[in-house]
Amino acid sequence: MKLFLIKIFKISITLLSIVSCHQGNDTNINQIISVKLEQTPLLSSFVDRVEYIKLPKEIRYGFIDRVLVTKDYFILADYEMAMKVYILNKNFEMVSIIDGYGEGPDEYLWLEAVNYNEQRKTIELLTNKDLIRYSADGEFVASIRLPLILGNLVSISENEYLVYSRDVRKGMVNSDFSNSVFILKWNSENGQLKPVINDHKKNVIGSTKDRHNMFRYKTDVYATHIYMDTVFKVDEHGDIHKTYVDLDGQNLPMELIYGVQPSSVLNKEEIQEKYAVHYPGLMVNDDFFIDKFAKYNRINFFIQNKRTSNVISGREILNDLDSGLNYLNPWFLDQEDNLYTIHQYEHLKEFVEDGMESETELSNFVKKLDPQTGFVIGKYHLKQF
Questions:
Q1: Using CA atoms, how far apart are residues 64 and 78, in angstroms rounded to an integer?
Q2: What are the phi and psi torsion angles at 68 (to 5°)?
Q3: Which among 106, 185, 276, 312 counts the fewest CB atoms within 10 Å?
Q4: 0.70 surpassed by pTM
Q5: Other CB atoms within 10 Å distance of the CB of residue 31
Q6: What's the confidence (pLDDT) of residue 134?
Q7: What angle do CA 88, 133, 11 make, to 5 degrees?
Q8: Radius of gyration of the chain (CA)
Q9: Distance from CA of residue 70 to its chain's centroid?
């Protein structure tokens, strides 16, 4: 767990932002999600069962930066440490491994993002200069040169992508707002770029690194950014819908970080006490919308029940289901309302050894694990609330 937290806050400190879309100056908000801070919810109030699954032995070291859920696969990507992508079936059994570190035409020296192209049935790795396509069995398919440095992307057809970049410069796209484009449409076949969403970058230093700021569910693509208070949804017709995330009225005013390193402001105790920061962790299915925020430099989650509009938030939880873990850090979501977390074996072992309860489902599971175990998945089945 320490490795997870160190990496999360290393990224958080170095990430530099774009300007926020505040409720007060945006009259086109379609929805407001009101998030209560400092909550410690009962696990049973939104989850009806928990189970634990050991990941394959091949995933022994490193860090899981991103997980994609498809109809047939779980795709786990380690961008910086192992620099591998693991393709698992729906029973979390290994299907293949993309291990292409190197300087060849089908290899990479840098990983920025991973995408699953539904139309091509390919797994696509975004580097600092290419988009590399692989089959589900890990075989190289093709490499496409990028028109600019991209921070993230999501495919919307065989050749078209919505892309996020901080590298857009005036004259690069056919738009008077080319120096303030947030999301573009890129055609990988003909190289054409078109602006889709503009922001208003006013003296705010930018960054290309934001692991979870784009998410595709069915034909909709969700996009946001760290510190931005608005989540945009681009539907299959290209229409844009806006959801404002209200962090209990404590959203960080963007003017506080104009022209400065955001970390120099956010590390101040008075700022941490007064404000909260949107920290994207977008996950969506038919029933739930999940995202994250930071308060006192700690990552918290919120879950909106889309059917009732009720919202549960927090980090620490009161685990009244299995006396297991007393915190929740959502990592990926499937269409059957299962929310997944990822844990290092050593942390779970330490948690069980320090716990007062000696006979719980989690403790019994951990005691049966091989000491060489790398990662364990927590599977939480969400219920209506």
A1: 5
A2: -110, 140
A3: 106
A4: yes
A5: 15
A6: 97
A7: 70
A8: 21
A9: 15
